[in-house]
Amino acid sequence: MPLFDAYWQQPLKEQGEKPKDWPHLWKDLQPSSCASCHQEQHQAWQHSLHANAFSPGLYGQFSTMSAREANACLNCHTPLAEQKFSTDLSLKDSLKTPQKHALRKAGVSCAGCHVRKWQRFGPPPKGSNQEGLFKTGVHGGFIASKDFEKSTFCASCHQFPKSWGTVNGKAMENTLNEWKASRFAKENVHCQNCHMPERKHLFKGIHDSKMTRKGLKIKVFKRKEGAELSLTSEWIGHAFPTYITPKVYVQAIATSKDGTDLQAWEWVIFRDVRFNQAWVEKSDTRLMPNETRRYVVKQLPAQTTQLIFRIRVEPDFYYKGLYKNLLTFTKDQKALSQLREALSLTYKNDYTLFEQTLLFKP
Length: 362
Fold this sequence. Notes:
The structure is a single chain. The protein is of the alpha+beta class. It has two domains: 145 residues, no CATH class; 150 residues, no CATH class. It is built from 14 helices and 13 strands. It has a four-stranded mixed beta sheet. A four-stranded antiparallel beta sheet has the order 8-7-12-13. Strands 5-6-11 form a three-stranded antiparallel beta sheet. Helix 13 packs antiparallel against helix 14. The longest helix has 16 residues. The termini are far apart.
């Protein structure tokens, strides 16, 4: 049973009048209410970026926006109509008293994906392909649809539409199209297979080092002269990394017997998109699915005793620059506090993905 066409039509419509004969728990859109029965899903979601989509970095930008502008961001960061700002005044009030709207702070919540007009929707029960209405005795049952297990379900937020324009022929966020062009689409491997294994609401991505490492095949070896790191995007169903925010560094450092750095090499993997009156793509060095890239050190300094290959990941590289820029002209003190917190978090998210040392005789 395909989901109706307007399921992800943004902005989403309000749920409408609450069913009068339902207990309060069924009429509450808070994730904590869903946790009463769906504890495992709620626990996993709590630690996900979806749960934190209404982030300090997003919130810190609202002091310079109207409600209409802020709501355009919230279409993905807090998709429910009930999470939006009703007026410019409500936006300003929220900046003063953020604790008043707990549902907005829930980010991409359970209801954002599973509730429309108070009706619950979800995938067919495990081990079943049956779709349609399941009468469960709570909240009017639920409507099962296989669409919940398809990549297109994620597209509303993870694939920018053509109407938003393109940069060098590609949407700014182009994840679904990248997946469509990969072998994974042909093999019927969807976003949910990797980001929600066994239906766990983890939504792990490049911020998780284990998730990232699992998708890559990395080999390091000596050459007749120098050395090489070979990197293959083996189990990533879109560009590595997707979107414009992460930046990956492949580094090599030659050192002497006493530990002195003799020479360093660095290559970057990311989509360099900048705004200068219009968006411009400076370069795009990302790996596409199943692509192999070779990073070669052709000649080592004479005193080299070891060569260290390292891969570093900055998941929030783009936001570092954005928040630093916003801090220079933002005047609202609460917004400044949020932006400082956001900037600090971007650095805490950096990590070393891989490191290996090759030994040489000088």
